[in-house]
Every structure is written in C-alpha cells, then in structure tokens.
C-alpha cells in the first residue's frame, strides 16, 4: 500500500476539477516525484476511467483521484429566485438555463465502484466525510484514503472513519472550501494555526493546503508538522494544465486585483478572482450546491466560448500572482529544491 511519507518530493498537486486538472498535469507532477491528482468531479465514470488509464499509461509513479461527497440540498425552493435572476444573463449569452436536478450525486456510487474495482494509490474526498463503508471498501482494495478538513471538529470526524491521512485546508486556498456543512460560514482560522490545532489532536499524516506557492511556503508547513504540501493555483499556468486561456490571462491582468470567497457560481463557498459575475450576483447567491452549479454551467460555457473572463469561475488562492508559465515537472522540482534549501537553513 502506498505510503505518503515516502514520496520523493512531498508535494501534492491539487485536483482542480472543471478543467485545470488534467492527465498531463497529474503525470508530470508524479513523474517529477510528487503526487499528481485527478479530479473525479464533474466527470462521468467513463471519462474518469479514461483519465485514470491515461495517467497509468504516462507513468508508473503513484497518483491520486479526488471525489466530491454528495450532499442533499434541504431547501431547493431557495434556488428559484436565483434562477429568475440569472435568466437575464442567459438571455444575453443566448443560452437556456436548466431546471435543477435534485438527484444529481455526480455519479457517486458508480465512481466508488470504479475505484474499488480498479484501485488507485490514493483516493481523496472533499465536501464532507464519506460514508464509512466507502472508506472501508477503498482501503480493502488497497487505496490510501484522505479526507479534506477545514476545522478540528471535521478532522476528528474524519479520523473516526479510519482514514489514512487528512488534507488540512486553510481559508487562503483557491477553489471550493471542503467545509462539511455547506450552510456554515467557512472557518477563517489561517492555515498555520489550523494545521497546528489539527496536528495537536491526531497522529495521522497531514497534507497542508491553502495559499502555498513557494518553496519557503512548503518548508513552513513541513516544519509545522505536515507530511506533505498541496498546491493548486501554482500549477494553473503550467502548459500541462487544462486552464482556459482567458482564465490563465486573468491571473496576470491588473484588473483582477484580488480574490474573494463567493457562492455565486456553485452555491458553495469558493475563493476566486473577483470579476463582474461575482460583483453582480454574490449578494443574492443561495446555498445550494450542486443546483446552483447546474444553473451557471451553461453561462460559464458561453463565457469560455467568448473568451470572457468576467463570466468564468476563476478559482485562485491568495498568492495567484506567483503562478508561472513553467512546465509542471520543472516547477515541482524547483519548488522542492527551494523547500529543501529552506529546510536546511532552518536546521
């Protein structure tokens, strides 16, 4: 069974569902000595199986797959006003908004079946604690199971399931927060303090993530007790990433000068570059993933086709300006060289 502590470079590539995470990116990071990760989110089981096969064809190094834990929307009626509000946007974009599908589980059962029948070294979860039977089945199949947590209470709940490691996500992270309760306001405790608090209550290996962008950042979390550091935004501009051209350009454009946490695109709190869509719709966006995500999907697709970054979900962590146009393998190696130098200086 794969041992996280034996990675040649303790760097995990964040999964980044929705496009940026790609087979080429996962292969490049794993080949370099880190842990590449595929995002199962928003894919059909057949698409996921194809991507897993692609990684296996590209490298025999360990890699992971990240899965969204489905949660029921208890108040779907709250989506209707947002549907009405976005209808005007849909008309301008010349698209039709779908009716919310309350049965959408992102093919949860099928994906767990795929991953138990064709196991991968690491399976990680976000958006909640997976059912204990899923954890047990994956571990029996030979996978290490990791759960993303954002509070000490979540860490305790995940540990009780018998998982192998925790991914400790601070508020500085780009993209969706892994908060178990989507109705709760995300915990603002900075990553450094959150990592220390979680580490004090568990012996499980910890993967630290949230705004990490440099070798010094990686060294900092390793010195604080993490087994590995997870980075996502740092890889957004690499040639291997599937990041849309307008998205990549926005990471460097002066007008996109800050990140904010919003529910506007998906109904779940996520950090991204502030753009026009967020400014116009953040205040009225309801809690309600995946229903809100379904509503905005055609709007985002139309914006992508038009190359309009103001209509895209530009997920990014607080240090997005440090993302570079560098091959992913080279970036991973350089990050680890810089981290190793920093760790040596600290001794």
UniProtKB/TrEMBL annotation:
Domain of life: Bacteria
Pfam family, one: NMO
InterPro entries: Aldolase_TIM (IPR013785), NMO (IPR004136)
Keywords, comma-separated and alphabetical: Detoxification, Flavoprotein, FMN, Monooxygenase, Nucleotide-binding, Oxidoreductase
CDD domains noted in UniProt: NPD_like
Cofactor(s) required, per the database record: FMN
GO biological process: response to toxic substance
Gene3D superfamilies from the UniProt entry: Aldolase class I
Gene Ontology molecular function terms on file: nitronate monooxygenase activity; nucleotide binding
Catalytic activities: 3 propionate 3-nitronate + 3 O2 + H2O = 3 3-oxopropanoate + 2 nitrate + nitrite + H2O2 + 3 H(+)
Function: Nitronate monooxygenase that uses molecular oxygen to catalyze the oxidative denitrification of alkyl nitronates. Acts on propionate 3-nitronate (P3N), the presumed physiological substrate. Probably functions in the detoxification of P3N, a metabolic poison produced by plants and fungi as a defense mechanism.
PANTHER family found in the cross-reference section: NITRONATE MONOOXYGENASE-RELATED
Family of this protein: Belongs to the nitronate monooxygenase family. NMO class I subfamily.
Name of the protein described by the UniProt record: Probable nitronate monooxygenase
Protein species of origin: Streptomyces benahoarensis
